[in-house]
Design a protein that fits this description.
Structural class: alpha/beta
CATH class of the largest domain: Alpha Beta
CATH architecture of the largest domain: 3-Layer(aba) Sandwich
Helix content: 40-55%
Largest sheet: 5 strands, parallel
Strand content: 5-15%
Radius of gyration: 24 Å
Shape: globular
Number of domains: 2
CATH topology of the largest domain: Rossmann fold
Order of helices and strands: HEHHEHEHEHEEHEEHHEHEHEHHH
Number of helices: 14
Oligomer: single chain
């Protein structure tokens, strides 16, 4: 009988302890529209609607581990952080009659640069900017059985036609609605073959669709599309944001790509890379350019420093100067604790306590913190 009472007593006390412990609720912003975000929302989470996530990020833009996490949590929640908010605030007050301003976001691997860019892209999409978005440059430069052919229009350069066609699909998916609203058209005739031409006054959607259906022309159409968009922006017909993740990969010494005749090509020999480098030139107005550098994007060399001078070198600096540098740091104390509260709320982190140990192990890097919390 005494043993029974002891067991029942232990069970009752365990239940009481479990009842006493309340799962933390992460601090969230009530503003789902990024246009409304301000300094009062820093370190808070906000949720992006599924249809918006599908519209902007269906073909890339969110890190794969984060996407897997959002599927488990059944929501896409981003933390509002100062670096993204700084760019967004600048976009709100910018003088778009002047040349496009360049922003370079940098920081340690896993500090949250890509998710900060995702926040900026969500703002730009909501504010009706055209998105010229390159989700991650190194994907272009890895072998992965890509078809590489010599360009028929640019001597000494190589095309990656299927990759360019895939990017055109990505661009059209992001911007189809606004392209229909603005009804932007081509400024001149483009001849592809004896029987194939794009007459002046054709919609940009028709131009893009031609590149998707005829992949051999996709690289040239990607370049033409950029030039047409720059012209329309300069003529005050639209606004555009150029967003490039893994920007420093443009300046790698080599790639994994080989042409059909087994010739290795350098990044600067690829027509899509030349288009990307042209996109960051500040020779147009009514827009902005946001670039991200990352040590992980340096494919062939070890980069021990995350500072841009080590990642893009003198050549890169000369290309994008002047620009506004924006560092994406590790989480501060408030952000760190709010992220752990979010994980506990979602039962991603099921064992309370140990926050100091997690802080030490993760160095308060959000990507590392997510990995460390997964098995707990």
């Amino acid at each position: 009988m005494k043993l029974y009472r002891r067991i029942c007593g232990y069970a009752t006390s365990a239940v009481k302890q479990d009842v006493q412990y309340q799962i933390p609720i992460a601090v969230r912003s009530l503003k789902s529209n990024p246009i409304d975000h301000n300094q009062n929302d820093v370190s808070k989470f906000y949720t992006i609607e599924p249809k918006t996530v599908s519209k902007i990020f269906q073909s890339g833009g969110l890190p794969k581990p984060f996407v897997e996490q959002t599927q488990v949590f059944a929501e896409t929640a981003l933390m509002i952080r100062k670096p993204a908010l700084e760019v967004i605030n600048n976009l709100k007050i910018a003088n778009y009659e002047k040349p496009a301003v360049r922003y370079l976001m940098y920081g340690k691997t896993g500090s949250g640069k890509s998710l900060s860019l995702a926040h900026i892209l969500h703002y730009a999409h909501t504010a009706k900017f055209i998105l010229f978005h390159i989700p991650y440059v190194p994907i272009w430069l890895k072998y992965d059985r890509k078809e590489v052919t010599w360009s028929s229009t640019k001597e000494g350069f190589a095309d990656i036609p299927l990759v360019a066609a895939q990017w055109l699909k990505h661009f059209l998916h992001q911007n189809e609605t606004i392209l229909q609203e603005l009804n932007l058209t081509t400024s001149k005739e483009y001849t592809w073959s004896i029987r194939e031409t794009t007459p002046p006054g054709s919609t940009l959607k028709d131009l893009i669709t031609h590149g998707i259906n005829r992949a051999k022309y996709a690289c040239d159409i990607m370049d033409i599309l950029l030039n047409e968009l720059k012209m329309h922006c300069t003529n005050n017909k639209c606004k555009m944001i150029v967003a490039i993740d893994g920007f420093n990969a443009f300046f790698n010494e080599k790639t994994d790509l080989k042409t059909e005749d087994r010739v290795k090509v350098k990044p600067q020999q690829i027509t899509m890379v030349q288009t990307g480098l042209s996109a960051v030139k500040s020779d147009w107005n009514n827009g902005a350019i946001v670039m991200i550098t990352s040590p992980r994007a340096s494919l062939n060399t070890r980069r021990e420093s995350h500072l841009p001078i080590y990642l893009i070198g003198r050549e890169g600096f000369q290309l994008i100067d002047p620009f506004i540098p924006i560092m994406v740091p590790e989480l501060d104390k408030i952000e760190f604790n709010n992220m752990l509260d979010y994980y506990e709320e979602k039962r991603w982190l099921q064992k309370p306590g140990g926050r100091q140990e997690l802080e030490f192990l993760s160095s308060r890097l959000p990507a590392e913190l997510m990995i460390r919390c997964a098995p707990l």
